[in-house]
Specification:
Elements lengths: L2 H6 L10 H25 L10 H8 L2 H24 L7 H28 L13 H10 L3 H8 L4 H4 L1 H21 L3 H18 L7 H6 L1 H20 L4 H20 L1 H6 L1 H5 L1 H20 L8 H8 L1 H21 L7 H32 L33
Helix pairs in contact: 2-4, 2-16, 2-17, 2-18, 2-19, 4-12, 4-16, 5-9, 5-19, 6-7, 7-9, 9-12, 10-12, 12-16, 13-16, 18-19
């Protein structure tokens, strides 16, 4: 079908946020924040975990990597679902519009953060100086702008925290660099699904065999992260083609939630056992995440009010993710100046999450979203043609601008 006729049949719909998606993003960013505060505390020899149950410690502060894997799955689902809704089929995707949409969403905040990080480096601010052994500032900037921060760190060592978080963006954007090209070439046939399955199969190997003992690459490899994105893509395709019964949806949602909870709650046992040695611990978590996504997307599941804080931080997950290290380092510096009191540790965790959430919301409202909307106006026919794979007849019109955040992990 020619693209023009395909687009003429697409209804101009907008869609409300999905609580299931926001909840998963909220859980993911919560664990990332907890992990990064924990690393600073342990680096300063604040042994606050000494009198806490080991299981609780692993659950709360060592699941950052699992949180990022959940990001990848949600991202794959949303990008694929939006592509299907906007162009009718994957093979009809407009390369120009797809790349412009990604640029509009990703680039403004990324470029601002890189500018701030560069300024802090030149000002010799502690925790923001890019060491010469990793290639210096110029090498870090090149890696960030060409999406291979993960490769740089695997070869040269970790960058400062504000730069290090960009490894996941490198994985994600490298996937989306080729995603529309592959969609145009083989998006109509089974070969496209087979390609996604290849990424799923190779994911565990990317975290184990192909890492060749490199600890950084075990966590930051392209294949290890792209597995999650591919599973999210497959979930979107399945949901777009299949209307599940209420019983199946309840089963998918319940089992998916249990798998996610167990994967996070017993992450250390999984990592240190057979699942971790084979790299399948991440795969199991991602499958559970995708089951939950499928169920909550088709049922329009509404979250209990008690989970509202997680929904809120989930709505600004991209902004929080890229800016939270400024908050972590700033508040941790105050914690150190206050004498590193054990009584202040819970306060540090709590205030970090609150301030990071507020900062993310402010950045989104006053910078990244206005820039996103402005840049998208340059794309012809972009208005009113983005949506989800859920039947538009059951969706409410809450505005495109409020939902563009759902396109990024």
């Amino acid at each position: 079908m020619p693209m023009a006729s395909a687009e003429s049949t697409i209804q101009a719909v907008t869609w409300k946020r999905l609580d299931g998606i926001d909840l998963l993003w909220g859980v993911a960013i919560f664990f990332v924040l907890m992990n990064h505060v924990n690393i600073r505390l342990l680096g300063a020899k604040v042994l606050y975990t000494k009198f806490l149950p080991a299981q609780l410690v692993h659950l709360l502060v060592w699941n950052g990597q699992l949180g990022v894997q959940m990001f990848f799955a949600v991202s794959g689902f949303l990008i694929t679902s939006i592509t299907l809704r906007r162009w009718g089929s994957l093979s009809n995707v407009s390369l120009r519009d797809f790349y412009l949409f990604r640029f509009a969403r990703i680039a403004p905040l990324l470029l601002l953060v890189l500018a701030i990080l560069s300024g802090l480096h030149f000002a010799h601010v502690h925790n923001f100086i890019v060491p010469a052994k990793t290639g210096g500032l110029g090498r870090a900037l090149l890696a960030a702008l060409t999406f291979h921060v993960n490769v740089l760190e695997a070869r040269q060592g970790y960058l400062p925290g504000g730069w290090d978080v960009l490894w996941s963006l490198s994985v994600e954007e490298m996937f989306y660099l080729f995603f529309p090209l592959v969609c145009r070439a083989i998006g109509r046939g089974k070969l496209f699904l087979g390609t996604l399955f290849v990424f799923v199969v190779l994911g565990p190997f990317g975290r184990t065999v192909f890492a060749h003992g490199n600890g950084v690459w075990e966590e930051y490899s392209y294949l290890g992260g792209m597995e999650g994105i591919a599973l999210g893509c497959l979930t979107a395709i399945i949901v777009s083609r299949t209307s599940f019964s209420r019983f199946v949806l309840r089963a998918l949602g319940s089992v998916g939630a249990v798998v996610v909870i167990l994967s996070l709650g017993f992450s250390w046992q999984a990592y240190s056992g057979w699942l971790g040695r084979t790299g399948l611990n991440m795969t199991v978590l991602t499958i559970g995440t995708c089951m939950f996504i499928a169920a909550t997307a088709q049922t329009q599941w509404r979250s209990p009010r008690v989970l509202t804080p997680l929904l809120r931080i989930g709505q600004y997950s991209y902004e929080i993710y890229l800016t939270h290290m400024f908050v972590v380092f700033g508040l941790f510096g105050l914690f150190v100046d206050a004498g590193k009191s054990m009584r202040l540790v819970p306060v540090l965790f709590t205030v970090t999450i609150l301030v990071a959430g507020v900062l993310g919301a402010l950045v989104s409202r006053f910078y990244s979203e206005p820039m996103n909307r402005s840049l998208r106006k340059y794309s012809e026919g972009a208005r009113g043609k983005l949506g989800s794979v859920v039947d538009p007849q059951i969706l409410s019109s809450e505005g495109l601008a409020a939902n563009t955040r759902s396109e990024v992990p």
